[in-house]
Amino acid sequence: MSRSPGLPSPDELETRIGELRTAVRRAMAAGDRRAARDLRAELREAERAWDDAVLGAPAPAPREEAGRGLLPVREQVHQALTLLGAPAAPKLIGSVYAAFFPGEIPGARLTSLRRDEERSFRTAPYARPYYLCAALTADLLAPARGLLTVSTWPLEQRIVGPLSPRTDFLTSALRLAEHAGRGTPSPDVQRLLWRFASNIPGAVTGTVGTADPAVLADAARAELDVHREPDRRRREAAAARARERLDDAERLFGSRLRAVRASGRRPAINGETDP
């Protein structure tokens, strides 16, 4: 996809997004809620610009016959995960791709995808611009069962703790709603948004089976504000341990032979722990 002259690149936007997230946290820590609101608005604009640069316009594209996507499976999964912005299970990844992009992801191909990605990385590390990798559990830094992430995401974003399932659900709901709200949602998108809205207080206001993207975004954002900080602290602590104790491959695909606990005891081996 070509980029218009003068527009920032995705890499530049990612850097700006990281800077704005840090600035928001600092403003909240200082008690400056007005500055935090202004910075969050700027952050959302930067994220929308990143969506445009990577995903393109949200207008619906012609659908192909089931099972025939326009891209290789790993790129289809990458697009869906990029839109979700959080670790996700294969079933949700397939639903998001089918709703927002042309074609569908063959479910059978997702079963071995992460193993293929790990094998590729271990054979030739960093040979690809990104890898589809595992989410890591915050306690053991082991692969979280059934959750895929993208290697280029910050490590904190790829870790899941006790609050992360809800936080990630709300994050994905917010991102999908904002993206859908920039166009006219198709019936498939409406059904997907409804699945999220029906599990978020205050997100359902209209006809059963449909959701207003703006209402869904507001409801998801309001609840996300409650859970975000405690979840972030747990993820950051786990990420610090991962950077200290795991090698490059383990940071992407998890530690399988040992569990890296926060306690400081010797890591568990083959399911056994120190007395």
Describe this protein's structure.
This protein has 275 residues and is mainly alpha-helical. It contains ten helices and five strands. The chain has helices at 10-29, 33-55, 73-84, 90-100, 107-111, 113-123, 164-180, 187-197, 213-245, 248-253; strands at residues 132-137, 143-150, 159-160, 258-259, 268-269. The chain has a three-stranded mixed beta sheet with strand order 2-1-3. It has a two-stranded antiparallel ribbon with strand order 4-5. Helix 4 (90-100) runs antiparallel to helix 8 (187-197), helix 7 (164-180) packs antiparallel against helix 8 (187-197) and helix 7 (164-180) crosses helix 9 (213-245). The longest helix has 33 residues, at 213-245. The radius of gyration is 19 Å and the shape is globular. It starts with 9 loop residues before the first helix and ends in a 6-residue tail after the last strand. Mean pLDDT is 83; it is low at 57-69 and 262-275.
